[in-house]
Structures are given as structure tokens and as C-alpha cells.
Write a structure and sequence with these properties.
The complex is a heterodimer of chains A (about 270) and B (about 110).
Chain A (H helix, E strand, L loop, with lengths): L2 H12 L10 H15 L4 H29 L2 E2 L15 H7 L5 H23 L4 E3 L5 H7 L9 E3 L12 H22 L7 H18 L1 H6 L5 H12 L1 H26 L6
Antiparallel strand pairs in A: 2-3
Helix pairs in contact in A: 2-3, 2-11, 5-7, 6-10, 7-8, 7-11, 8-10, 8-11, 10-11
Chain B lengths: L4 H6 L8 H11 L3 E3 H8 L3 H13 L3 E8 L2 E8 L1 H23 L9
Antiparallel strand pairs in B: 1-3, 2-3
Chain lengths: ~270, ~110
């Protein structure tokens, strides 16, 4: 029995429940795509596609609940006696720890995502609101930003102007979705021990968090001298339209879930005799 | 003269130092408990083999077996006992010490003074 084989056994046993990508993450991704098509884009065909994706998410989630136990068995995750002190916020950890359905990894992921959201909102409140007067909008941006023009106004808002707000504009909500999704993948990579096999999660986290940062500091980027228009134009739809942001997040969730499912299947042998 | 690393390896606890039982204990050490199907899939053992090894580990007090009904089927669950958890952790520590000892060992150490 070699060390890599024991390493594989311990990793799969220790993370068995959250490697079941078809159970939560792929359905969550399908749901995000469904909501994106239902709300973010016009066209009856896309609305129908959105509805189908939502139904598919529910069917997959219910099917996976039976598929994994019947094919791979069941594992109760390890209990942990201590939580890192930095996360021992008053009351939060204790309340979550008492819930029978939360696992240690889930608690850590929720805390990681909460921390990332707090940093994002702080960044949104301290960086300037992007206000583009219609006359000054370059032709290549006008079509993209048209959806965010308030009624009868010649002004396009990219973010809320109220200090420390919840994002009130669609653009802000889309960027928040990117932050939550990116921090989920970053948390998975970090809390699974930065295992080399988990580097795909980091590869998904970096672009999503980068896009959110791009949206947060957009004003500085637009006014910077020498910034390539092509680069801004390429990424602008993702940070300005929540539907596009949800498409990106949904696709990333599906990919992450499928990769974990593949790792689980490859890490388990065939049932013999 | 103290034992060489190789003599120490030969004297390892055979209850654990067996590929199949080591795989079972490694899996159980990473979780609270696991069912029979999971252990069978993760170790690649046949049902009979796994059942035999689990029985030996239970007799040695390293593993606790629980059977429960899920619907009309019986589900077998296994978990490490406290003794089992201490034993496997001691085994890992011993193996690490042996590895370091084997790296440092040289034939010159065998020559009597």
C-alpha cells in the first residue's frame, strides 16, 4: 500500500460528501443559468430554456440523493473539536455547530464567503461610483450600458452611491454573485488543504474574483490613460449585466461540480464480489 | 545493540501492518463512520475479504461495527474506536520515525565496537 494510495483513500473519505458534485453544485449551476435566461435576456425561447434548466436542476438534485448512496455508500464526515479562533465570531460558530446538517467544511465555506462579501461591499463603498453621461459614452459601450439607464435620464449608474450599501443596481448584484461564487471555489481549494488535485478550484476562483475586482475599480480603469478599449469592452458585459454574470457563475459551478464528481468516481474502485 | 530499522519493521503490529487493514483504517481515520459499501469501493476488496478484515479489527478492539435497518435492508457501519484511533496515529508516527531512521542508517552502524 503506497503513500499516494493512502493519500487518495484519506482524501476521498475525508471529503466524500462535498465531492458529490452532482448533488449540489451542478444543480446550483443549472439554477443560476436558468435564472439568467429567465430574467437577464429577452426572447421566449430563452425563457423556455431557463424554465427547463430549473426543472433539470431539481430533477438532478433529487436523483443524485439516491445515486450516490446506492453506488458509493455513505460516510459521516469527521467532527472537529475546535474551530480556528479567527472564525469564532460570537454565537455564529456555536449556532452552526449545533445544526445536524452543517459539516465543518460547510461552516468554513460560509464564513469564507461572508468575509469575501464584506470585503467586496467595503470596496464598493470606497471606490467611486461610475457615472457615465450618455453623450460621453463611447459608442462601443453604449449598447452594453443601455440597460442601466434610469427612466428619462441621460445618466448610467454603475454602482449605488450610498455609503456601504447592499448593491442596488443590477451591476452590483452581478458582481456580488461573482464574489460569492469565486470565494466558494477559493474556500474549497483552501479548506481542502490546498491539495494539488484541487488546483482546478483555484483556477475557477481567480478569474471570478478578478472580474469582481474589475467591476469594483471600473471607474479608475475607464479613466486610465492607455488602457486597451478592447479589454474593457470584452469584460464589461460580465460586470454590468447580472444575467451575464449569472451565466459565468453557473457555468463555473457546473464545471466545478463535474470535476469533483469525476475525482470521486476515479478515487473509488469498482465494487467487487 | 539496538534494533535496526529493518528489524523494527519486521516487528510492526500485524493487526495494522497489512495492506487491506491499513486501507480500511486509513479510510475510517478520515471520517466519523462509513458504511460497508463505501469501504468496499474505496479499498477495492471483495465483500468476503472486507467482512473478514473488519471482523479481525473488531476482535482486536480497533473498530466498532453497528448494524441498522434502512427500509428493509441492513446497513453495516464501521467506525474507529478510541483505541483504534490512538493505535493508527501511533502507527503513522512509528512509520515516520522508521523512515527517518532508515534514511540515516548505514552498514557501519552494525560493526561492534
Amino acid at each position: 500500500m503506497t503513500n499516494p494510495e493512502l493519500d487518495r483513500i484519506r482524501f476521498v473519505a475525508g471529503h466524500f460528501n462535498d465531492l458529490q458534485g452532482l448533488r449540489f453544485r451542478v444543480p446550483a449551476g443549472l439554477s443560476a443559468l436558468g435564472v439568467a435566461f429567465l430574467t437577464g435576456f429577452a426572447g421566449r425561447g430563452l425563457v423556455l430554456l431557463g424554465a427547463v434548466l430549473l426543472v433539470a436542476a431539481v430533477v438532478l438534485m433529487l436523483g443524485a440523493r439516491r445515486y450516490y448512496p446506492s453506488h458509493f455508500g455513505e460516510v459521516e464526515p469527521p467532527r472537529e473539536a475546535e474551530i480556528l479562533s479567527i472564525y469564532n465570531l460570537a454565537g455564529t460558530s456555536v449556532a452552526l455547530a449545533d445544526s445536524p446538517r452543517t459539516t465543518p467544511l460547510l461552516r468554513r465555506l460560509l464564513l469564507t464567503m461572508g468575509l469575501a462579501a464584506a470585503v467586496f461591499l467595503a470596496g464598493q463603498s470606497t471606490t467611486p461610483t461610475v457615472v457615465l453621461v450618455e453623450d460621453s459614452i463611447a459608442p462601443q459601450y453604449r449598447e452594453v450600458l443601455e440597460a442601466y439607464r434610469p427612466e428619462g435620464s441621460g445618466v448610467v449608474w454603475m454602482k449605488s452611491a450610498t455609503p456601504f450599501p447592499l448593491p442596488r443596481t443590477g451591476a452590483g448584484l452581478g458582481q456580488l454573485a461573482l464574489v460569492l461564487c469565486g470565494s466558494l471555489f477559493l474556500g474549497l481549494w483552501f479548506w481542502r488543504g490546498r491539495h494539488p488535485a484541487q488546483s482546478c478550484q483555484l483556477a475557477l476562483a481567480v478569474p471570478l474574483l478578478g472580474l469582481a475586482a474589475f467591476g469594483t475599480f471600473l471607474e479608475k480603469l475607464i479613466s486610465a490613460q492607455g488602457l486597451a478599449d478592447q479589454a474593457v469592452r470584452f469584460f464589461l458585459p460580465v460586470v454590468s449585466r447580472p444575467g451575464v454574470a449569472l451565466l459565468v457563475c453557473g457555468s463555473a459551478l457546473i464545471l466545478s461540480g463535474l470535476l469533483d464528481h469525476r475525482q470521486l468516481v476515479r478515487g473509488m474502485g469498482e465494487a467487487r464480489g | 545493540m539496538s534494533e535496526t530499522p529493518f528489524e523494527q519493521i519486521a516487528n510492526l503490529d500485524r493487526r495494522i501492518h497489512d495492506p487491506a487493514r491499513l486501507a480500511i483504517l486509513a479510510a475510517l481515520s478520515a471520517c466519523e463512520r462509513a458504511d460497508f459499501l463505501f469501504l468496499q469501493r474505496i479499498t477495492g476488496l471483495t465483500k468476503g475479504n472486507l467482512s473478514s478484515h473488519l471482523s479481525k479489527l473488531e476482535e482486536a478492539g480497533l473498530v466498532e461495527i453497528e448494524k441498522r435497518f434502512v427500509g428493509k435492508k441492513t446497513q453495516t457501519l464501521a467506525r474507529l474506536s478510541d483505541q483504534g484511533r490512538q493505535t493508527i496515529e501511533g502507527y503513522w508516527k512509528k512509520m515516520e520515525e522508521l523512515r527517518e531512521s532508515a534514511v540515516r542508517w548505514s552498514p557501519a552502524a552494525m560493526v561492534p565496537a
